[in-house]
Fold this sequence. Notes:
This protein is an all-beta fold. The protein has strands at about 10, 20-25, 25-30, 35-40, 55-65, 70-75, 95-105, 110-115, 120-130. It is built from no helices and nine strands.
Amino acid sequence: MFQMNDAVQTADWKKEKHAPALDMPGKIKKGDAVKLTVTVGKEIAHPNTTEHHIAWIDVYFRPEGEKFSCHIGRYEFQAHGGSAQGPNTSTMYTHPESTVNFKTEKSGTVFALSYCNIHGLWMNSMDLTVS
Length: 131
């Protein structure tokens, strides 16, 4: 039987241009906000062309000891150089990066999924400790 994790690829974002990089503190004090920046292509630039681009990034948080994850947000990237004149003729290109602030009372794991229109789903995660 097909499992969703069979469709998701993982890799070190420093060596792979498709894996999302998570930039946030690993530890916070209870009541503090977490500032998270998620980027695809942080170390190795990902092409951002009409034919090959990152379409979206989803971010989730799974609190320790809980079965279900919370969806923090979806960030869609629409400008990939396309225009009425044809592919890659626009001067507008988006860089797949987004920043979000959130609060949690529990430690857990933040994970991000990114979608490349050619190479599919990629995931990365980072633990967050709340004291």
